[in-house]
Task: structure prediction
Amino acid sequence: MIQKFDFLVIGGGIAGMSYALSVAKSGKGKVALVCKTTLDEANTAKAQGGVAAVTNLDVDNFEKHINDTIIAGDYISDLAAVKHVVCNAPNAIKALVQWGVEFDKNGKGEYDLHREGGHSDFRILHHADDTGFEIQRGLMAAVRKNENITVLENHYAVEIITQHHLGVQVTRKTPNIECYGAYILNPETQKVDTFLSKVTLMATGGVGAVYAMTSNPVIATGDGIAMAYRAKATVKDMEFVQFHPTVLYNPSETHPAFLITEAMRGYGAVLRLPNGKEFMQKYDERLSLAPRDIVARAIDHEMKIHGLDYVCLDLTHKDAEETKRHFPHIYEKCLSMGIDITKQYIPVCPSAHYMCGGIKVDLNGESSISRLYAVGECSCTGLHGGNRLASNSLIEAVVYAQSAAEHALLMVDNYDFNLKVPEWNDEGTLTNEEHVLITQSVREVGEIMSNYVGIVRSNLRLKRAWDRLDLLYEETEELFKRVTATKDICELRNMINVGYLITRQAIERKESRGLHYTVDYPKHAYDQQ
Ligand SMILES: Cc1cc2nc3c(=O)[nH]c(=O)nc-3n(C[C@H](O)[C@H](O)[C@H](O)COP(=O)(O)OP(=O)(O)OC[C@H]3O[C@@H](n4cnc5c(N)ncnc54)[C@H](O)[C@@H]3O)c2cc1C
Result:
């Protein structure tokens, strides 16, 4: 089946929905928004902290937000992208509010601003501690109400369409590669449909699921980055994977793993080995209160040298009632696993959290492939450089969604659907009866990435990951050619692709910078141990 839309949006998180609302407002054409599960399942809905924007010019200013972002990014952020996001952030907040998103206010009717690690001022807008859920709720309501937007849930984008599908040989050196839409798996027929579009937006979110443990939901398999890369788009900064230092260690709950907020260390929780010994004194004088990346690396190092699956957070010295009052959600969660956090240690480990790199885009959010834009976590605007400043990702998604929409609306009339794009060819393929091959390979990708391309890397570990991924790649490509396309095999292919990109770009970076730490090019003494 062939379907035609002026604007095709792949992804229904903050990035996809903000863009869809912005282009739909113009009434300039039909918009389709596809997402691979239900609209409420997105990384966006998991965000807790908030959204960074300078809204109180009496005390804060753009210059400070710009500096904080550049320092966090270890001085390799793209200055133009940083200025673009910071200076357009207040307008992006206004747009969110107009679409129906609510942020907490104080008694004077002003935004109740929080301050987070790395920010020199109070500039984090939030909605209690479930800001992402509120954003997803507000945007979903606005999108569902908008008559120009067709929402297609459980529709899985398999591949984007370029000249390659018209029989032209496309390489990474081919100039003017164009995107004509995407092949999308229809949940009712289980057939791959052809969606032709004048403009396509990739907004498929993060990649956490390529690691064995992640704070991201299962959808975060990096599909958009892999699709764009296969279509020969430029993909950048993939070595910069942010790890959250403390999720609850629970082997039966890994995607998403339950987040143990960093506020708990602020409250006085102490990191210990399971035998009770403290270890942070070896790494940083701020002990358990050291910044996120230092704590994550320290925990990773202790786990590796002692062969542990987890370390512990100790709150047992704190007043039990106060602990329950501060962290009711965490208390209940741990209790459901038989752990009373007022009397017992909490087992914690680091987990993959955020991808700073992705599909390289310009200030209009356009990728190196014409008619293909990328926004949100799947994109690489240059804002984050080597490390993301807390709460800068949601705001980046809205600012770039608006820029991409503006540019796409200017360009859309130059494009048409008059191309003979062949339908998806699954002739001769079989239904896959060997599902175990896929589940086992998915597990292997997670193990390879966590063990060899995790928080602390080395040339040897990266080489081993490369070799293992190569083997999985060969096996999976062969299977993919033989079987009918399903979401599972496509996700596996994409995860291998993304794993490969992280590994290759990590090998290429011959220094420890930002989130990329390697013992072969150390920054701190303990990396050499
Ligand atoms: C626990 C947690 C806490 C966080 N806290 C904060 C915070 O406080 N502040 C902050 O700024 N950031 C935070 N982040 C990061 C932030 O939430 C994400 O970076 C952001 O929400 C990503 O939005 P997105 O629209 O790019 O992707 P997502 O919200 O993940 O949406 C991706 C969409 O793409 C769809 N999709 C994916 N692949 C396909 C496919 N093949 N076909 C069709 N559809 C597809 C999915 O179905 C989904 O609809 C947090 C992240 C996590 C996990």
